[in-house]
Design a protein that fits this description.
The chain is of the alpha+beta class and 118 residues long. It has 2 helices and 7 strands, in the order E-H-E-H-E-E-E-E-E. The protein has one domain.
Length: 118
């Protein structure tokens, strides 16, 4: 396990604060976003995708969250010119930060927040 890099942390915080609900018309409340953002400071990386084409990471929360909706999965999205960005929130905890390239060219580093369209 390792701590999040500054770029990973900044991107995760931005996605949690401004990302749109992926594939649904689910309403994300401000209290949901605040609860998820509070968990980022203690979050750790415990694995990577391993595909060789992306920098996606598995997250472990630093402390147990108060699960507002046990069993619920929420996915927030944003994009860059060449990739989708997704953050998966399972049982009220951010668990996976994914970068999915649009093409076949590998992207080995997460983008800067300034390069992301929310």
């Amino acid at each position: 396990m390792r701590p999040l890099t500054a770029r990973e942390r900044d991107l995760l915080l931005a996605l949690l604060a401004r990302g749109a609900a992926f594939g649904s018309d689910e309403s994300i409340t401000e209290s949901d976003r605040e609860r998820w953002v509070e968990q980022v400071a203690a979050a750790m990386v415990h694995g990577t995708c391993g595909c060789g084409s992306c920098p996606s990471i598995d997250l472990v929360p630093g402390a147990e969250a108060d699960s507002a909706s046990p069993g619920r999965r929420t996915v927030l999205e944003a994009s860059t010119a060449d990739a989708f960005l997704l953050v998966f929130i399972d049982d009220d905890r951010p668990t996976y930060l994914e970068l999915a390239p649009f093409g076949d060219d590998p992207i080995t580093e997460f983008p800067l927040v300034a390069d992301v369209a929310f």
